[in-house]
Amino acid sequence: MKTTSIKTASGMYINYFFLGMVNIILASNMSSLTKQWNTDPTGISYVIAAIGFGKLLTYGISGVLSDKIGRKPLVVASAGIMAVFLVGIPLSPSYELAFVFALLAGVANSAMDAGTYPALTELFPAASGSANVLVKAFMSVGATLLPLLITFLSDHSLFYGFAFYLPAAVYALNIVYLSTLSFPKRQKMPTSSGQQESPAFLSEPVFQKEGTALIIIGFTSTALFTVSQIWLPSYAQKAAGLAESASVQLLSYYSIGSLTSVLLLAVLLNRWVKPVMITLLYPVITLCTLAVMLTVHVPVVLDITAFFLGFSTAGVFQITITLMTELFWKRKGTVTGIVATASSIASILLPIATGLIAKAGGIAHIFMFDFGIAVIGTAAAAFLYYRYKKLTAAPSRN
């Protein structure tokens, strides 16, 4: 493995380490931001939705730019735009200006994805799956550490904005670092036989069946972790009476669960466990976890459920894309874009919907709604599992 490839990958992983923080930074500072912008938690959820909206608006153009001008410009630009977001939020005097900065964060996220995933595949063609799984791992570590930083600032009566400025400073430094690195040339990578081969299916997959199920899973998988990342601390404060600093720690347990899951999947997938099994098993775990969380309001139980929520929602979206490209391998780019769009729609709608629920019925109703989403995701996964078993060839017996 070339040293240059490792250096280039490390720069991109640094971006995602801090993206893990960005994903929860608004929800984790909800109390401070509601005071600063004279709004309520519902208002903060709308700002969070703006990130998803910015991502959805630019998904298509980011992919085109990645193929036309290369991966490096998008990766470098994403770090710069994200730094602007992180500096801008604590300095925003109004809710409206914060909304604009949140849109920029969505643009940065879109550019980061469009540049990084293809670049990692081109850097490590023989281990692209592992390279992409590490993206989620770095995000989980970043999300685990942010609550600790916020707690430190709170305990020492320091300005909450330092939790934004530190990642912004690193992003700025990473721009310089990434600018000095070489990225691989864009090229088509054939299989060992020199051409694309069709997976072995007993019959042709039907997009209206398997494809629809995977689109639903793409939506619900994103919806489930979006709700948890936004509302888990608020739920702990309301349901169990936890202090703000203690409730934010739940996001650390959530992220530890997510990281544990990603590392476990990297070892187990395709060796001992098929991806389609994970798409069914994980939503079932989420269902059980939400049921416990809604009925048992003990702090230690909430710590445990936060871990399992993180565990069972991690990696499902990536596995969904893997299955979609396996089943509909002739249109990999198109079907990947469809799943990504469903995910982006979830990242927009869920903050808005849950914000309205919080205003109308309270925080507990949000997780009842989340339970319903998990039921839908589980039903879609069960249908997919049934169809996949019918499609795949039976293993040969010696």
Structure report:
With 398 residues, this protein is mostly helical. It has two domains: 1-183, Growth Hormone, Chain: A; 199-393, Growth Hormone, Chain: A (Up-down Bundle). Helix content is 82%, strand content 0%. The protein has 14 helices and no strands. It has helices at residues 3-28, 30-37, 41-69, 71-91, 95-123, 128-155, 162-179, 207-240, 244-268, 275-295, 299-313, 316-327, 332-361, 363-391. The radius of gyration is 21 Å and the shape is globular. The protein starts with a helix and ends in a 7-residue tail after the last helix. Residues 188-197 have low confidence and may be disordered.
Mean pLDDT: 85
Low-confidence stretches: 188-197
Helical residue percent band? over 70%
Number of domains: 2
CATH class of the largest domain reads Mainly Alpha
Number of helices: 14
Tell me the series of helices and strands, N- to C-terminal. Answer: HHHHHHHHHHHHHH
- Total strand segments: 0
Give me the secondary-structure category: mainly alpha
Q: What is the C-alpha radius of gyration, as a whole number of Å?
A: 21 Å
Query: Tell me, what's the shape?
Result: globular
